[in-house]
Structures are given as structure tokens and as C-alpha cells.
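Could you help me review a protein record that somebody else here produced? This is what I was given.
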Amino acid sequence: MRTLISTAFVSLDGVVEAPGGEPGYRNSGWTVRLVDFLPEAYEIKGREQDEATALLLGRVSYEAFSPVWPDMAEFPRYRTMPKYVVSTTLAEDDLVTNWGETTILRSLDEVAALKETEGGPVIVHGSAALNRSLSDAGLIDRYHLLVFPLLLGAGKRLFSDADRDAQRLRLVEHEVYANGIQKNVFDVVR
């Protein structure tokens, strides 16, 4: 069984929207504009690339990342690893051709089936709506969170507001950096 890892830049109040500078959000680019850059705070991002064997994205994140990430020097392993996009509307013709093998999954049942295959970890980047659905369905096994010392108020949230039973997490790795970013790695307790 494969491990499904959700990785996110998140504000202290749970916002994940526009961390890299996407237009249309008033606090766009908050990870680079509002907190001093310290390379050591992002060590986990390189480790994720080394350890992941597949990338899972929602349609919106795929459409944002696919024109940019294939040519970025920071993401060389993501070029060749298999990618899965969860979407009911994306067509095969919508997929880029320069980013390696990409498979469209049409449901969370197909994500659950992917988890049952042989292989290493599958990592979810961005994809706020997908993350909420995966969490509500009990499909996420681990969270890699870089928590920024910011309160952003409005914005897309990483976690669902569904009324459900409490989900226990086990802290397996943590670190606090001089710029206030906290790395928290949690395993989901089943």
C-alpha cells in the first residue's frame, strides 16, 4: 500500500491560497513577501522530491503547475515521475506533453485504488479542494506542513469544515526556524 502525503505551505489560521504569488488574491505571494527566506526551512521540499514516486494534483493545481514546473530547475524529479490528476472535467487533450506520464483519475475511489498499488509515496501539492476531499474520505496518511507565522484571514483552507469525528495525528518530525516557520510532519493515526 502506498502512502499518500499532503504537503502544504499554510498560514497559522489554515490558509493555503496563493502562497507563490498567483493573481486575484489580496495576500498573494505571502510566503515570499511576508517572511524572510531561510533555505534550511525548505529542506523538506527537496526531500519530498527524492522520496516521492508519484505526484497527485487536483485540476486547478495541475493547470497552474503544468505550464511552469516542467522547465523549473527546482523540480527536476517531478518532470519524470508519474503524475495523477483528479478531475471530472479535464480531458486527455488538456494534458501537457512535456511533463512525463500523466493519468486522469475521475473519482476518490480511483485515488483509493492507486493507494493500493505497489510503489512508494504519492505526494499532493497545492490542490486545496482535493486535499479537503481526500482528508474527509480518510485517504491522507501523512501531512508535511510548513506553517508560516501569519494570520491571513480570508482564503482557501487546507482543512475541511465538515462536521466529522475527530482525527488524531501523531507528530513524527518538527522544527522551528529563525524566521518563525514551523515544520510539522504528522502521521494520521488509524
Remarks:
- The chain is about 20% helix and 25% strand.
- The longest strand covers residues 4-11.
